[in-house]
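Lab notebook, bench 4. The sequencing result for the construct came back, and we need a structural model before the next group meeting so we can plan mutations. Quick request posted to the team channel:

Model the 3D structure of this chain.
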Amino acid sequence: MSESPIALDKRRPGSIYETNMSPTAIDDLRGIRTFARGVHPPSLKHLAREVPVEVLPSPGAVTVPLLQHTGAPCEPLVKPKQAVTLGQKIGSSETFISAAVHASIAGVVQMGSVATLPNGRHVRTIPIQADGQQLAGKALWEDVFGGDWLTDAAGRFEPSAIVQSVREAGVVGLGGAAFPTHVKITPNPKKPVDTLLVNGCECEPYLTADYRLMLEAPGPIVAGAMLAAHACGAGRLVLAVEDDKQAAAEAMEKAAKGTLLKVVVVKTKYPMGGERQLVLAVLKREVPTGGLPLDVGVVVMNVGTAAAVARAVLRGKPLTHRIVSVTGRGVAIPKNLLVPIGVSYGELIQYCGGLTPQAARVLAGGPMMGQAVPALSAPVTKGTSGVVVLTEEDVRQVQETSCVRCGRCVDVCPLRLVPTKIALASRHKDWDLARRYYVTACCECGCCAYVCPARIPLTQLIRVGKAHLPKN
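Done. Here's the predicted structure in token form:
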């Protein structure tokens, strides 16, 4: 009789079932960690952090973009007037770096359209008009996050099967980057992985979606982390939480009891949630300039992404919904909502009581890295972690002046770049010079613009430089 997959996996080098890990591998994670530089903007999370997640009532229609991830856009698999069910795949691509999209409601496909996303891209979409009975309320929560989650099931699956399930489910990084997860967890013989680092920091001001997920549904996070670690060959699992989220750390420690997942606390600092900064703070490994955590043997995964992995592998369900924080002093009632992909920003704001008279700007994401929403009819994508509504006072502009060479942007840059030089090169369209100053290495965290006394839009200028590089 052949041995079971579990028995085989216990002997696989680097498996999460490996038992001969050195004690120092865990001991060196103790203590509160941080990284050099960075900033401490007001968190403003009090607006929504104690508000439990609500399930948004099923909308009358959704508009699902065919490109809401890093990589190649999807091609539609359905036609107008075709009936679709919740979770049915409606767009896909054969390209490795891409992510399938699925119907987030049951209904009828409408004529294809084009939507403008907050990043400025015009993308094709598949509109779906709701039809028939919809999964909603408590039943929807139970379908997405509820029930028991096996934390010891990873050994039942071959790594390739986990990768394939994640790919079919269209799972991407839910922290904002939206990089296809199956690409991250596919083993690379040339760059072996020893650690899976789960990111629960959520350092962006205002946003509380990940915090609420860790409090209310820690089970799928642990289960998904175990599966992802097994897939990529990581022998160590670590979940990092900032020290201003003690309740979340305790909830995760309780859920992870009896597993190999270790919870560590890191200092609250922006941008602790950035991959490079988190790897350095927790593991004391420095990701090379222009490199990836994979270059130092690490895969970083957001807590929401881990939960989506568990749902994809253990329940065969695709990524159709996510938690979004709708917050800020410009919205009447800040909330955390479980919403279908493709619902409009306007519907989320309306459900939260609408805009206040002082509302001035709607952001997709937080104030440090978020981007202005072009229209409230724009659809929520997989990477939308928050909708922040700022007031006139929040966005009051201070007139830009000339750079005074104070060096503050250099002092706070977590990647040790010279933001003012990159921005100046970009402003003068000297793309070659911008490249020599490592414009592509910038993570666009916004620390430089936050501290600039001359109010120079450094981050925006750097983004312009990045956008022009491929054209030259």
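The longest strand covers residues 122-130.
Will bring this to the meeting.
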